[in-house]
Amino acid sequence: MQRRKLQLRALIVASGFLHGPQGQPERSLANLDADYLQHVFAINTIGPALVMKHFLPLLAKTGPCKTLPY
Hints:
By secondary structure, the protein is an alpha+beta fold. The chain has one helix spanning 34-55, and strands spanning 10-13, 66-69. The protein has one domain (10-69). It has a two-stranded parallel sheet.
């Protein structure tokens, strides 16, 4: 992108995790499991944050530009 002077104007991070074979969405506080919550947190927050870390320098420095974490 830098070589051709293209500018990134939008970045959509559309990753996410709700549940898998090892766990289902919690229906009460009694169902909370620290290890499973840590796994979900890592995917849903740390993953998109790392994507943003590496792509933010490529976003246009002037004009409109958006980051959309979904």
